[in-house]
Design a protein that fits this description.
The two termini are 45 Å apart. The protein has two helices and four strands; from the N terminus they run E-E-E-H-H-E. A hairpin with a 6-residue loop joins strand 1 and strand 2. By secondary structure, it is mainly alpha-helical.
Length: 117
């Protein structure tokens, strides 16, 4: 009995297609020995992905863009604090808190590790 080269299922000599994966059956000629095995050089290596906060990826700005965005977010935070420090009441605390939460999520997104290679 032969085996399928695609899935390894056992094949009867009269079959032209594998009954398990439907790949065409390749029956060796009589006296032709086993098919050659693939070597390590024949296989396409799958490099492991690299992640970085400092190198720019397909959807990031690199260190200059990230630092610039952080400076802008910090300046807007200072501006919000400066404008609302003259106003008194619970609404001021809520406005500053909402900005702080929004700034946290923006900066977390900007500084996340991104796939670079």
């Amino acid at each position: 009995m032969d085996t399928c080269s695609a899935c390894g299922a056992r094949l009867k000599p009269e079959l032209t297609w594998c009954w398990q994966c439907f790949a065409p059956a390749r029956h060796p000629a009589p006296g032709a020995g086993p098919p050659p095995r693939a070597t390590q050089d024949d296989l396409d290596p799958d490099p492991s992905p690299q992640y970085s906060r400092w190198r720019s990826g397909p959807t990031t700005f690199g260190p200059v863009g990230r630092i610039s965005i952080t400076v802008v977010v910090a300046f807007i935070g200072w501006l919000v604090f400066y404008v609302f420090r003259f106003v008194d009441g619970p609404l001021v605390i809520a406005d500053v808190a909402v900005y702080a939460v929004a700034a946290f999520f923006v900066l977390r997104h900007v500084w996340r590790r991104d796939r670079v290679a």
